[in-house]
Structures are given as structure tokens and as C-alpha cells.
Amino acid sequence: MKKGRVLNADISSVISRLGHTDSLVVCDAGLPVPRNTQRIDMALTQGVPSFMQVLEVVTAEMQVESAIIASEIKQHNPQLHETLLKHIEQLQQHQGNSIEVRYVTHEQFKKHTADSHAVIRSGECSPFANIILCAGVTF
């Protein structure tokens, strides 16, 4: 049996295939997923699992070098934005590297999702609860 934290086979598989700078999206229930991008749907019902629950599990398994967030989160979901930044800060300490955070418009964000290896959909139903994680290396 796998010893890592991620039990979901699809998530585990996509993380294991990521190379340096490859990206993976964790999103809310409403983000459109491009047709040619793998969708890993974790949503069970409204709010379950939450965006942060999914993100915490994914980042426990994935080495993160940078992240892209829609700038609209600052105004429309400031509490989640603060929680997200705290999580990234803790992740930096745990990984021992700095994580660059870039902000783009939500429209640009949606375009960037097409370049990701997969989109992991949470049950989150709060605005702009989305992040693109760019893979780092562990050496």
C-alpha cells in the first residue's frame, strides 16, 4: 500500500508524472475545465471537500516552486486569500524553498488552466478559490 498521504489514484498518478515547471490546478466547483485537460473531480456536495482540504493534501505530496492565483480573490474572497497565503508560507518552511506567487486576472487564469496536466475540482463554492501550482524539484 502507498505510504504517502494521497490515496486518490488519479491525483497520485498525476503528481508522480509532473516534471520541473509542470502545472496542476486545484479549483472550486465552478471553474471551467478545458476539454483536453484531465479533470479529477473530488466534489461530493457544496463545500465538500473544501478547496483548502484538497490543496493541503496535494501540497503535502507535491514539491511546489511557484503558484498562480486570480487577483480578484483579494477583493472577493479576502479571508480565503489570507488562508491561502499562510498555507504557502508554511509550505515554504516545510519544503525549504521560496514559492513565487503571481497574480493574473481570472480570465488569464482560466486560459492558463489549459496548460496544466490536470484540474482537481473541489466542492468549494466560494469565489475565486483556485490556484495553479507549478512543480519544483526536490534536489
UniProtKB/TrEMBL annotation:
Cytoplasm recorded as keyword: yes
MF annotations from Gene Ontology: D-ribose pyranase activity; intramolecular lyase activity; monosaccharide binding
Classification via Pfam families: RbsD_FucU
Main localization category: cytoplasm
Cross-referenced InterPro entries: D-ribose_pyranase (IPR023064), RbsD-like_sf (IPR023750), RbsD_FucU (IPR007721)
Entry-linked SUPFAM superfamilies: RbsD-like
Residues of the active site: 20 (proton donor)
Single GO BP term: D-ribose catabolic process
One GO term describing the cellular component: cytosol
Pathway(s) this gene product operates in, as recorded in its UniProt entry: Carbohydrate metabolism; D-ribose degradation; D-ribose 5-phosphate from beta-D-ribopyranose: step 1/2
Residue ranges of the TM segments: none
Subcellular location: Cytoplasm
Binding site for substrate: 28, 106, 128-130
Record's keyword terms, sorted: Carbohydrate metabolism, Cytoplasm, Isomerase
Catalytic activity: beta-D-ribopyranose = beta-D-ribofuranose
Subunit (UniProt): Homodecamer.
Its job: Catalyzes the interconversion of beta-pyran and beta-furan forms of D-ribose.
Name listed for the protein in its UniProt record: D-ribose pyranase
Organism: Kosakonia quasisacchari
Protein encoded by which gene: rbsD
